[in-house]
Amino acid sequence: MIGDTRNGFSVLTFTNVFNIVNAMRFNFSELHSYWLALIAIAATLLCLTFYITAYVMPSKAQELLEETYPEYNLI
């Protein structure tokens, strides 16, 4: 379940980001610095989300399942 969620989220988000940038025809050289800062923060948060869902959650899947469902450890 963790892997399926991660793959679906990644594909949908990347597709939407590229579609929005292409549809709006952003000219980044004409944007004010606060808009560039906002775009940089959003891109950083997006990258952090991808990292957490791609590497941190799958590596801790066993631990998270045992913590949430104690009976899972008995099997």
What features would you describe in this structure?
With 75 residues, this protein is an all-alpha fold. 77% of the residues lie in helices and 0% in strands. It has three helices and no strands. The chain is elongated, with a radius of gyration of 18 Å.
How do the helices and strands line up, and which of them pair or pack?
Elements: H1 2-24, H2 33-59, H3 61-68
Helix pairs in contact: 1-2
Short key terms for the protein model shown above:
mainly alpha, elongated, 75 residues, 77% helix
Short description:
With 75 residues, the chain is mainly alpha-helical. The chain has helices spanning 2-24, 33-59, 61-68.
Task: Report the C-alpha radius of gyration, rounded.
Answer: 18 Å
Order of helices and strands: HHH
Low-confidence stretches: none
What is the share of helical residues?
Answer: over 70%
- State the helix count: 3
Shape category: elongated
Largest sheet: none
Helix-strand makeup class: mainly alpha
Compute the separation of the termini in Å.
18 Å
User: How many β-strands, per DSSP?
Assistant: 0
Average predicted confidence as pLDDT: 76
Strand residue content: under 5%
